[in-house]
C-alpha cells in the first residue's frame, strides 16, 4: 500500500510535498525548530499479527483492548496477548477499499458493563456510498463475542467521494457520542461541505444514543447543541474540519483534542469548542487556503498547534499523557504523524502549546491509544503491530 493512497492522506499528497496541492494553498512557511524533550523513549511491541489496525479502544472499567481492523473486524487483546478469532466481523457490510473506506471507528457505551452496547463507524457501498453509525451488543453469554445480529443503525450520511471519511467515535463526559466526519473527499472540498451548516460532512457531530429519541430519529439531539432549533443541522457540534481522523477525551477533563489532517501544506491540532468554526476550506491550519490570500479569518478558531509538510504529511491524533512510567511527559499531549514521527505538546502557560519531537521511527502510524493507567500506545498500520511508548 503506497503512502499516497493510505487513508488520511488525500490523493497526490506526496506530490504536494514539492508542489502546492490542487484547490489552493501556497508555499509552506518555515516551521520553528521544536524544543527537544529530555529523556530517551522507545516503542516496545505489545502484539503483532494484525491486519490493517487503525483503532485501539477500551471499554470503561475493562482491561481488555479491542483492535479495529479496517477490513471490517475487531479483535481482542487480553492480558497482553491477542485472542484468536474475531470479536466482531462485519466484512459483509463494509466496503473496505484498501484506502480510506472500511471499518473506521469503535466506541463503547459508558454503561457497557451492564448494557453491553458499543458503536461503530463504517462505510458501505450499498444502497449507495455512505458512512454508517451503528450500535451493536456483545453476546450475553460470551463477553468476547459480539452479537452480529444486533445491529441498530443510528445514522447514515451520504458520501460524494471515496476519501476523507473521518472515523473516530468518542463518548464525552456529558454522556453524548461525538462523531468525526471528514469533508467527503476529493481535493480542496469542492462541494464546500465543511462550511455548509446543512451538511454533516466536515463536522464533529454530537448525539444521544439512549432513548427517548428525537422524533423519528434513532438517536437524540442534545438540547444545547449549537444548531438545535436554529439554522443548521441539529447534530452539528463543530464545523470547518477537513478530515478529523483521530480525536480524544483527556482523562480527568472534558477537553477533547482533535487532530485535523491537512491538504497540501499544514497539519493541525485543535481543542473542540461547541459551535466552533475551524476554518476549512477557507483556511488550512492558520493560513488562507481558498482564497489563497486575503481570506476571511473572522469567527474562525485557530489551531493550538500546526506543522508544515517539511515535518510530516498527515497528523495522527493522540492523548494527553496521564501515566507514571515517563514522568517527563506528564500532562503533555502525545500525537504522531503517518510518517512515524511522535510529538508532544506542552501547555505552558495555559492555552499556549509548544511542540517537541519525541521519536522518529519507521512506523506507519495510523492511531494512538491509552490504557486506564494513562500510558500511551501506537498502532503500526503496515506491520500490523501494537506498540507501547516506554522509557529507554
Describe the fold and architecture:
This protein has 392 residues and is mostly beta strands. It has a single domain, classed as TolB, C-terminal domain (Neuraminidase). Helix content is 2%, strand content 38%. It has helices spanning 13-16, 112-115, and strands at residues 41-47, 53-57, 65-69, 73-78, 81-82, 88-89, 103-108, 117-124, 130-138, 146-158, 169-171, 177-181, 203-207, 236-239, 246-249, 256-260, 266-271, 283-284, 287-288, 305-308, 315-320, 333-337, 341-347, 353-360, 365-370, 376-380, 385-391. Strand 9 and strand 10 form a beta hairpin. The longest helix is centred in the first third of the chain and has 4 residues, at 13-16.
Amino- and carboxy-terminal Cα gap: 31 Å
Class from secondary-structure proportions: mainly beta
Distinct helical segment count: 2
| Whole-angstrom Rg | 19 Å
Overall tally of structural domains: 1
CATH class: Mainly Beta
CATH superfamily: TolB, C-terminal domain
Major sheet attributes = 5 strands, antiparallel
Mean pLDDT: 92
Give me the CATH architecture, please: 6 Propeller
CATH overall fold name:
Neuraminidase
Features:
four-stranded antiparallel β-sheet; disordered N terminus; five-stranded antiparallel β-sheet; mainly beta; 392 residues; Neuraminidase
Summarize the structure.
The protein has helices at 13-16, 112-115, and strands spanning 41-47, 53-57, 65-69, 73-78, 81-82, 88-89, 103-108, 117-124, 130-138, 146-158, 169-171, 177-181, 203-207, 236-239, 246-249, 256-260, 266-271, 283-284, 287-288, 305-308, 315-320, 333-337, 341-347, 353-360, 365-370, 376-380, 385-391. By secondary structure, it is mainly beta.
Amino acid at each position: 500500500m503506497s503512502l499516497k493512497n493510505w487513508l488520511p492522506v488525500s490523493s497526490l499528497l506526496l506530490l504536494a510535498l514539492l508542489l502546492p496541492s490542487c484547490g489552493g494553498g501556497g508555499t509552506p512557511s518555515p516551521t520553528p525548530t521544536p524544543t527537544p524533550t529530555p529523556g530517551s523513549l522507545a516503542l516496545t511491541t505489545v502484539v503483532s499479527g494484525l491486519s490493517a489496525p487503525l483503532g485501539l479502544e477500551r471499554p470503561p472499567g475493562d482491561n481488555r483492548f479491542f483492535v479495529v481492523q479496517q477490513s471490517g473486524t475487531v479483535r481482542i487483546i487480553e492480558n497482553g496477548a491477542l485472542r484468536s478469532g474475531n470479536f466482531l466481523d462485519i466484512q459483509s457490510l463494509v466496503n473496505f477499499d484498501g484506502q480510506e473506506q472500511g471499518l473506521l471507528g469503535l466506541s463503547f457505551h459508558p454503561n457497557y458493563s451492564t448494557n453491553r452496547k458499543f458503536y461503530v463507524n463504517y462505510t458501505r457501498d450499498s444502497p449507495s456510498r455512505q458512512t454508517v453509525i451503528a450500535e451493536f451488543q456483545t453476546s450475553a453469554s460470551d463477553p468476547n463475542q459480539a452479537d452480529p445480529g444486533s445491529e441498530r443503525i443510528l445514522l447514515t450520511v451520504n458520501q460524494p467521494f471515496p476519501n476523507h471519511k473521518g472515523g473516530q467515535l468518542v463518548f464525552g463526559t456529558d454522556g453524548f457520542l461525538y462523531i468525526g466526519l471528514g469533508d467527503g473527499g476529493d481535493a480542496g472540498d469542492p462541494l464546500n461541505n465543511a462550511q455548509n451548516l446543512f451538511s454533516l460532512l466536515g463536522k464533529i457531530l454530537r448525539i444521544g444514543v439512549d432513548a427517548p429519541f428525537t422524533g423519528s430519529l434513532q438517536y437524540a439531539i442534545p438540547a444545547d447543541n449549537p444548531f438545535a432549533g436554529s439554522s443548521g443541522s441539529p447534530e452539528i457540534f463543530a464545523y470547518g474540519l477537513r478530515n478529523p481522523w483521530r480525536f480524544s477525551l483527556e482523562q480527568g477533563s472534558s477537553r477533547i483534542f482533535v487532530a485535523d489532517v491537512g491538504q497540501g501544506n499544514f497539519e493541525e491540532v485543535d481543542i473542540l469548542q461547541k459551535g466552533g468554526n475551524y476554518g476549512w476550506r477557507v483556511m488550512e491550519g492558520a493560513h488562507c487556503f481558498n482564497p489563497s490570500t486575503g481570506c476571511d479569518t473572522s469567527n474562525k478558531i485557530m489551531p493550538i498547534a500546526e506543522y508544515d509538510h517539511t515535518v510530516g504529511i498527515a497528523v495522527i491524533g493522540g492523548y494527553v499523557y496521564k501515566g507514571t512510567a515517563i514522568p517527563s511527559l506528564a500532562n503533555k499531549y502525545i500525537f504522531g504523524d503517518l510518517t512515524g514521527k511522535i510529538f508532544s505538546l506542552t501547555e505552558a502557560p495555559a492555552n499556549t502549546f509548544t511542540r517537541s519531537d519525541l521519536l522518529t521511527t519507521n512506523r506507519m502510524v495510523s492511531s494512538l491509544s491509552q490504557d486506564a493507567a494513562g500510558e500511551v500506545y501506537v498502532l503500526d498500520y503496515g506491520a500490523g503491530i501494537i506498540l507501547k511508548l516506554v522509557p529507554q
